[in-house]
Specification:
mainly alpha, 2 strands, two-stranded antiparallel ribbon, single chain, globular
Length: about 80
């Protein structure tokens, strides 16, 4: 009963990691990280790596990044 729910959560996580990787990394690295995010425990490490890279890019461009990310009023929608 819990397997479809777990599969859906892992699939959604991989989807969002893949989309973030496309913005942060160039070329095949985003595709590779998206596929690796499907592996349950390894996907968490991939997610943290991509998140730290995205936060670094935001800080380089002058945005303040807190625990929950950058403020939307600073970034603009």
């Amino acid at each position: 009963m819990m397997f479809p729910l777990a599969l859906a959560v892992v699939g959604c996580g991989a989807y969002f990691v893949f989309n973030l990787c496309r913005k942060v990394y160039v070329g095949w690295i985003g595709i590779t990280y998206g596929i690796l995010a499907l592996v349950p425990c390894f996907g968490l490490i991939i997610l943290l790596t991509v998140n730290s890279k995205a936060s670094g890019i935001l800080v380089e461009n002058g945005y303040k990044v807190g625990f929950l990310g950058a403020k939307l009023d600073e970034v603009g929608r």
